[in-house]
Design a protein that fits this description.
CATH class: Alpha Beta
Bound molecules: succinic acid
Oligomer: single chain
CATH topology: Double-stranded beta-helix
Largest sheet: 9 strands, mixed
CATH architecture: 4-Layer Sandwich
Number of strands: 17
Helix content: 10-25%
Shape: globular
Length: 275
């Protein structure tokens, strides 16, 4: 296997391995690379739905997505799609999947099934590099803080997605979510400190109102996207990306109006997060 960084502080492209048939030793190296770099990209892969599911189970459990359409006959696979006549895409702004769960999903295995002729790239930002770059006084201010996360304002029947042409595809609009996590977590496998707030799902700091929390949250969001902590993936047929939700934010760019894009996503179970 050969590992080539995608950017100085985020992402790695891994070649010389077939994900559907990789050995346990290769799997261990892939996991370690993803924990460190945040996201790994694999080109020219063949992944049937069965192989996608088998590969996901090698990480531990699979979390079945509560909101997105599921693939017929393979309910472990969520369909992340935008039709040619739709305006809104799924995940079209910076976010961390599942931070609104008590035990957030570890990450995702995303397979490109149908791509627009151009555009539709995905970006990731490394939250370890974001934390490292914070000024010392901000690090001191957020040490020991916890934040409340929920997805209700996005997915519920009158939420953000329901007000768009994405709303009709959603399931689970009556669910209630909510979880408290440290603002700075330690990666469960590497021990690295990571900034763990995101503007899609983090609502307020514990013990503060939304209004009191917003100035510092906004400073953290701005800081999380400055510097060289981002990478960008141009998808091709056969590309698979696997990312770590604890280590990264991601953003699916919505710049391919008039074209269809369909991706298949398996969400990998995670573990409780700690400071
Ligand atoms: C997502 O999981 O947020 C969507 C990623 C993508 O479609 O590139």
């Amino acid at each position: 296997m050969e590992l080539t960084p995608m950017a100085p502080k985020c992402g790695v492209e891994i070649s010389g391995v077939s994900l559907a048939n990789c050995s346990d030793a290769e799997m261990d190296s892939i996991k370690q690379a993803i924990y460190n770099h945040g996201v790994a990209v694999f080109r020219d892969q063949e992944f049937s739905p069965e192989e996608h599911i088998r590969f996901g189970k090698r990480w531990g459990g699979i979390d079945i997505n509560n909101y997105f359409p599921l693939q017929k006959d393979f309910h472990e696979i969520a369909v992340v799609k935008k039709e040619a006549d739709q305006q809104t895409n799924i995940g079209g702004d910076w976010h961390t999947d599942h931070s609104y769960d008590q035990i957030p999903a570890m990450g995702s295995v995303l397979v490109a099934r149908e791509l627009p002729p151009s555009g539709g790239d995905t970006m990731w930002a490394h939250m370890g590099a974001a934390y490292d770059a914070l000024p010392a006084e901000v690090k001191a201010e957020i040490e020991g803080l916890e934040a409340f996360h929920t997805a209700d304002h996005i997915y519920k029947a009158d939420g953000l997605y329901a007000q768009t042409d994405m709303g009709k595809n959603l399931r689970g609009q009556d669910l209630k979510t909510g979880a408290v996590h440290p603002v700075v977590i330690r990666h469960p496998h590497t021990g690295r400190k990571l900034l763990y707030v995101n503007k899609a799902f983090t609502i307020h700091f514990v013990g503060q109102t939304r209004e009191q929390s917003l100035p510092l949250l906004q400073r953290l969001y701005d800081a999380a996207l400055t510097g060289d902590n981002q990478c960008r993936l141009q998808w091709q047929p056969g590309t698979i990306a696997i990312w770590d939700n604890r280590t990264t934010w991601h953003n699916a760019l919505n710049d391919y109006q008039g074209h269809r894009r369909e991706m298949h996503r398996i969400t990998l179970s995670g573990e409780a997060l700690a400071a």
